[in-house]
Amino acid sequence: MRLRRKGLAEPAGSSETGESSVETMPAPGPRDAAELDSLDGYLDFGALLVPVTDVELRLNIDEATGRVLSLAWLTEDAGLEVSVFAAPRTPGMWDELRPDLVADATQRGGTVDHQTGPYGAEVVCSLPIQMPDGTGALQATRIFAHQGERWLLRGALMGRPVSEPESAAPWYALFGALVVRRGAAAMPVGEALELRLPPEAHLGAGPEDGGEHDG
């Protein structure tokens, strides 16, 4: 698996693997780590256990702190970014978060559509962005979530799966194959769970850093 820094905004043309789809895998979850019998076949990112795939995996890293903020799988025409947060024991956190997403998108000059997917309510945000050549464009993202035992895993689909939902099935399956390790410590609701690099990972530089390594 190749690990790279940042560069999550443009799934089209961002992957160097030449792959345009991800392998469909069984999706019983996302699950809690307590349900696993073995970590074989997973990469350990701390709060997230990630199945090994051939799809390029990028890390969104806070350059000031070195903290991993989110993970994203990218192909030539699609992508999935995930982040994980502390949640209450009672359900309904995603219902409470969606209005904030809508307000943020609207404030940034975007538009919002409400849809339903395999994990329930989804928010499709279209935000204005500036392309490298200076022209304007709209970037659409399909955002959804799954709440588990005191955690919430949020997914954001990019590229083709946003405009063609029928192509999103493998990406939903990848989301469902993730495993969350919440830990027992008390945390404020909404605080990001700690993600970290697996000990065996070799982090390559992103496009802006001019290099990369296979991990």
Short structural summary:
The protein has 215 residues and is mainly beta. The chain has helices spanning 93-107, 160-163, 169-176, and strands at residues 3-5, 31-32, 42-44, 48-51, 56-61, 68-74, 78-86, 111-117, 120-130, 136-147, 151-159, 179-180, 203-204. It has a single domain, classed as Protein Transport Mog1p, Chain A, CATH 3.40.1000.
What does this 3D model show about the protein?
This protein has one domain (17-198): Protein Transport Mog1p, Chain A, CATH 3.40.1000. The protein has three helices and 13 strands; from the N terminus they run βββββββαββββααββ. A hairpin with a 3-residue loop joins strand 3 (42-44) and strand 4 (48-51). The relative contact order is 0.26. It has helices at 93-107, 160-163, 169-176, and strands spanning 3-5, 31-32, 42-44, 48-51, 56-61, 68-74, 78-86, 111-117, 120-130, 136-147, 151-159, 179-180, 203-204. The strands form two sheets. A nine-stranded mixed β-sheet has the order 8-9-10-11-7-6-5-1-13. A four-stranded mixed β-sheet has the order 2-12-4-3, with no helix packed on it. Residues 7-21 and 207-215 have low confidence and may be disordered. It is globular.
